[in-house]
Structures are given as C-alpha cells and as structure tokens.
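Standup notes
- DV: blocked on the single-chain target, sequence here:
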Amino acid sequence: MTSPTQTPAHPCAGCGASVAFAPGTTALRCPYCGLEQQIAAPTRQVRELSYEAFLAKPRVRTLAPNQFTCPGCAARTESDAISRTCQFCGTVLVADTANDSQIAPEAVLPFALDRNGARNALRSWVRSRWFAPNRLKKVTEAESMKSTYLPHWTFDAGTVSDYVGQRGEHYWITTSYTDSKGQRRTRRERRTRWYPAGGRVARDFDDVLVPATTQVDIEDLNELQPWPLNQAVPFHPNYVAGHHSLRYDTEPPVGLEQAKVIMRDVIDKDCRRDIGGDVQRVFSVDTHYSNVMFKLVLLPVWVGNYLFGGKAYQVLINGANGEVQGDRPYSPVKITLAVLAALVLIGAAVWLYLAART
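- DV (later): unblocked, structure below
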C-alpha cells in the first residue's frame, strides 16, 4: 500500500505565501498580507455510504502514515494527520485522501470561531468555574491553542423493535396508623397495579453522531454537542488548509455499536410511551436494523492546554458555537466552605422543624 501525498499548497496571489481557511468565512486568507480567495461553492451534495457495502469490501487493518513532501522547502515528513503545516517552513500541507486505504471524509463543518473567539470562550469559561481557585481567573489564554478538525461517524438506520414489559397504573387507598402521641390517624397511600404489555415500535434515525478518534477525552468531546450538522459541506481540502486534521482511529463497526447505544436509549423511551399508563417496565427489546448508512465528517474543535500550579490541563472548544469542556483545578478551601455552609443550613432546617413540633 502506498501512502497518499499532500495536495499542492495554495499560494497567495498577492505575496506567494501559503493561504489558510479563515474561520467564519468561505475564503482562504493569507496570514501575511490578508488577501482572501473565495472557495468555490460545492458542486455536489453530502453523501451517505452503505454500511452493508462497506462490510463486503476487503478491509486493511494496518495503516501507513501519510507522507508529506513540502512544496515550499521540499522537506519529507510523515504524519497520521490529514492536514497540518510544515514544521520547517510553515507551508500548508493537506493529504490527498482519494487514494487512502481509510475511508475518506465525506463532509466537513468549517470553523466558525477564530482564534480570538476561542480565547474569549476560554476566558468566559474560566470565570464561570465556581469551585476553581481564584488565581485561575488570571488564565486568559491557553499555553497552546490548535484549531483541529476531529473525525466523527454519523449513522442512519431504520429500526423496528419488539418489546415485552409491564404497564403500571396508580391507585390510592386509605390506611390507618398510630402517630407518636398514640392517636389513630388515617392517610392516603399510592399503590400500583401492573399489567402485562408488549408491542412493536419503529423509528428512523438520522445522523447519530459518535467520535471516531481516541486522541482526546471522549466524554468532553461528547459534551460539545449539539453540532449544526446541517451546515456541514462536502469535504474539500480548502476547508482544512492551515488547520490540523486527525485521521480516524475508531473503525466503523465500533462506531456503529456506540451509535446503537444512543439509539437504544431513544427506543426504550418509545417503548415506554407505547406501553402507556403511569409507569412502565421494559424487560426486553429486540431491535432489527435496516438500511444502515454512514459517513465520516470532520468537526471543528479548538484544542488547548494551559498550565496551573505546575500541572497541565486540556480544554476543548466547539469551533462552531464556542461551547467549552475540559479539565480544571478545584479549590479545597472553597469546597470546604461550601460543605460547611450546607451543613449549617441543614442544621438550621432541622432545628426549625423540631422547634415547630414542640
């Protein structure tokens, strides 16, 4: 297998330097003279791939890194990235994914947030951390902030699910009891009658999103949702030029199983809605998946790291809307004071309750 080489860098028509995609625009911009070159409108629609057809093809397990030959200084380097900049001269490099053994990106959601926007989002996030040390508020910029397109899978599927469960219906009864003073009293208590239930529900899923990389914290990455996937455009190297882009390291079968977990939660709610009643029990669900389609989409994330107290922390910033997720330090003093305040409030409430009963 031969590794793909990069597509030629786009030189600036004004000064000849490499241009890069400008977040929030539809243009390539020169970082030196500021000249912009508009990106041509897409000539095709974003397409979905047949998962059944994918399984029928031979699959390559071992993937060679992309080989880059810089058109600026002729340096030869290797990387698992789809796009990057030359570490020697800064020339924009984008791999040609057409001949790659991996699945090529089908769509890309272009960056809407530029570096200044990412800095402002980080500042707002830092200031809103209640239990963080006060000194953290002085962190106004990450030590490193890299605009990175992270790979995600989207899955579509038609589902039909047969379920078995129970429907619970509430009713009320009156019971008698003896209070602490020895007096007989009555009260109403709720009971539930259970009836067998079973049936079938169907749902079509569209663009169930799962990360296709393990290079960043998956929980933080998931918390960056929702993404405006309707704004994604067919993949073109121009949109990733000048930005880092990762290849996927989570294969489609693994991604589909993760997507099914997301679908399963939705199907469970459909089953409970179909059962009706006041409460429901679902014992088993047998789901059949049909017409499974998928695609690889690159989503924009500012990946930053900052130092605090001699420790490095990572933050992820949604490059479409500025949502921030990540690590942060905690202040033991603030947490202790909060716990003490809560204990005082609980103690006061108990004292008032006991005082009212005497």
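- Follow-up: Residues 1-8, 131-136 have pLDDT under 50 and may be disordered.
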